[in-house]
Amino acid sequence: MTDQEALHTYALRLADDLLILSHRLGEWCGHGPVLEEDIALTNRALDHLGEARNLLTYAGQVEGKGRDEDDLAYLRKEREYLNVKLVEQENGDYAHTIARSFLFDAYHLPLMEAMLKSKDEQLAAIAGKAVKEATYHLRHSSDWMIRFGDGTDESHQRAQRALNELWTFTGELFVSDEVTSKLVEMGVAPDLGAVKAAFDRTVNEVLAEATLSRPEDGYMATGGRQGMHTERMGFILTEMQYMQRAYPGAEW
What pLDDT score was predicted for residue 73? Predict the structure, then answer.
């Protein structure tokens, strides 16, 4: 694997995490539990989408085959998407949606903070904008985890159940392979060990305040980074890619 191929793959991984999570959060538009949260989730979805666009554009430039952000977002097959399985999980109830975002936010913020020091100027610049948004996202999801966990018996049980169901997908966030090892050595990508340590601190602190139990580490579902997804991914792409598939090359 060349340095260029590794960078292209890495940018796609970062972009796909955000693109798919953005789509999931966008499914709440008009269905939020209260108006303020409906707007908050829509704004989060747009933040993720904006960052995904920057990364997809850069991935296309690095690839050098003339593909732009739209080509990469809408015209790839399921096995060509490299997002972690966590972000493609269904919304479920509001506690489930928040728990999924919280686990991703606890990883994404320290990743972007570390990316500020990347020797790749474009990735560092993208991280510079993303850190501000990621800080708000983590604060928002943390507040809701505490509100659910330290609220009623019903809200506590729903939040704990969501954590228990989603925890198996968190291990994939920190799996290192040839791509990450090469880019860490080049000073382009952050060390995932340091990101994991920050993730653990955040999760432990928030769950303690929320009176929720951190699930035990056990089997971790992986494969998303290599394009092997859950059955939910196909349904996402069917909806997300419909317009481009139905009307190829359409422009607004």
Answer: 94
For residue 150 the two structure tokens come to 């330290």
CB atoms within 10 A of CB 210: 23
Burial category of 114 from C-beta neighbours within 10 Å (exposed 0-12, middle 13-18, buried 19 and up): middle
Tell the burial category of 135 from Cβ atoms under 10 Å away from its Cβ (0-12, 13-18, 19+): middle
What pLDDT is recorded for position 250? 78
Phi, psi dihedrals of residue 103, rounded to the nearest 5°: -65, -40
- Spacing of C-alpha 96 from chain mean position: 15
d(CA 100, CA 106): 10
| Architecture of the 3-246 domain | Up-down Bundle (1.20)
From CA 107, how far away is CA 51, in angstroms rounded?
15
What are 159-190's pLDDT values in tens digits? 999 999 999 999 999 999 999 999 999 999 99
Q: Are 24 and 236 in contact (CB under 8 A)?
A: yes
Reported as a single tens digit per residue, the pLDDT across 36-81 is: 887 889 999 999 999 999 999 999 999 999 999 999 999 999 999 9
Distance, CA of 2 to CA of 214 (rounded, Å): 39
Residue type, 64: G
Token pair of 194 as six digits: 């340091």
Tokens 């139990």 -> residue = 213
| Confidence at residue 249, expressed as pLDDT on a 0 to 100 scale | 80
| Cα–Cα distance for residue pair 55/48, rounded to 1 Å | 11
Buried/exposed code over 87-98 (b: 16+ C-beta within 10 A; e: otherwise) = bbbeebebbbbb
